[in-house]
Amino acid sequence: MRHAAPDCSVIAAAMIAALSLVWPSAPVRAADAGSNPSPQAKDWADLAKLPDWSGVWTPNVSDQDARIKSDPVPWNTQAAAQIQRLVAAEKAGTPKGLFINCLPESMPSWMLITHNALEFLFTPGRVTLLGESDGNRLRRIYTDGRAHPADPDPTFHGHSIGHWEGDTLVVDTVGVLPQTYIAVDEAVGLPNNGDLHVIERIHLAAPNVLHDDLEIIAPHVLTKPWHTTRIYFRQRSRKYDIVEGVCLQGSFSDGVDEAGNAVFVPAPQTEDGNLVPPGK
Amino acid sequence: MISTTYEGAHVKSLPTLRLAAVLSGVLLAGVPAFAHHSFAMFDFANTTKMPATVKEFRWTNPHVTLLVVSMPKPGEPEELWSLELTSPGNLTRLGWSRKSFATGDRVDLEFNPLRDGKHGGAFKKATIVATGQVLTSNLREAERPDLK
């Protein structure tokens, strides 16, 4: 009597399907922990229930600047002393850039200080942020219900999982390298020094205005979680389409090798990565 | 020292460029490096105005650079100046392209100079003399949605 009792997998599938009615990003099929199920038509259809975040989003840079004062970073005593020196150097016109080595701006600075555009892609079980800066870096945010790995390999952008609360995407990020900066601009910021945890609530504040409300928990440099917001404007004009952004390109000049091939020739950089002017 | 690579492939003969590559260790001294950096070394409280001729327009990430030769007063030497801008992507959104300037264009420039007095600055505005076209690059003037 193989079919006398209900199959447990049928019950599980029904429960998950019911859940998906209230939470479009929930997994619609049972899947073992080690595999990503093939999306079905319903998975793609469920994406239409999500808010429309299409288009290209440009950052409100003036607001980034203003929040240095309005949302001060709660640096601990040791960090504050270092920040004071960095601010003084910047005011004196002798900044030491944080990102001059062209390593990724990383989390959370990628969201905090970028001057470049980004876009969102919704696919079943995932939201992907595609950026223009940092060599067109991207963030993968898993919305398929998975948890963080127990001991993730530290990376520049960490491991991000998300879920939808109404029209707000709540993103939780851990597993970020301790060297990545908590920065307020390109020359003022400090490494998070480990155990970084970032919680974001991303939502439309107006039809074409997106807010990323960030809570940044960095126990080795902050006295308490830092709450701040970053604002992005939606653009639809095609001249706003995201283009290639290769950070190291400017460190090379165009050249031709001995065989006549077009090549990049390394250009010398100053110690602090600033522009080398042609002399006085 | 002025690098030959400032002049670019459009104005240099192939043999000269080959020589430049072979001797890059010497000839590239002074080529600007444009890592992703702060703009705090520029004096935004002061604006310098300068008539100049475009020598090279480097449409590269993460910062575009305009290299110009000043138009000196009689008896004074020409000077090479390097003006830095935001990224190609951001400039595209402000209406620029990699062809916004051509080598040899006469321009009236406004820029925020380097604080240390060297021949560099943060680009502010250029008027192309032949056409009257004005180019600006202030991202903060384009902070609203649905820009056309």
Describe the structure in your own words.
The complex is a heterodimer of chains A (280) and B (148). Helix content of chain A is 20%, strand content 29%. Chain A has helices spanning 8-22, 41-46, 61-70, 77-91, 109-113, 133-136, and strands spanning 56-59, 118-123, 126-131, 138-142, 159-165, 168-174, 181-183, 189-191, 197-206, 209-217, 226-235, 252-256, 262-266. The N and C termini of chain A lie far apart (93 Å). Chain A is α+β, with helices and mostly antiparallel strands and 280 residues long. Chain A contains six helices and 13 strands. A nine-stranded mixed β-sheet of chain A has the order 1-11-10-9-6-5-4-3-2. Chain A has a two-stranded antiparallel ribbon with strand order 7-8. Chain A has a two-stranded antiparallel sheet with strand order 12-13. The longest helix of chain B has 9 residues, at 14-22. The relative contact order of chain B is 0.18. Mean pLDDT of chain B is 76; it is low at 1-35. Helix content of chain B is 13%, strand content 28%. Chain B is an alpha+beta fold and 148 residues long. In chain B, strand 5 (120-128) and strand 6 form a beta hairpin. Chain B has two domains: 1-31, no CATH class; 33-140, OB fold (Dihydrolipoamide Acetyltransferase, E2P) (Beta Barrel), CATH 2.40.50.140. Chains A and B meet through helix 3, helix 4, strand 11, strand 12 and strand 13 of A and helix 1, strand 3 and helix 3 of B.
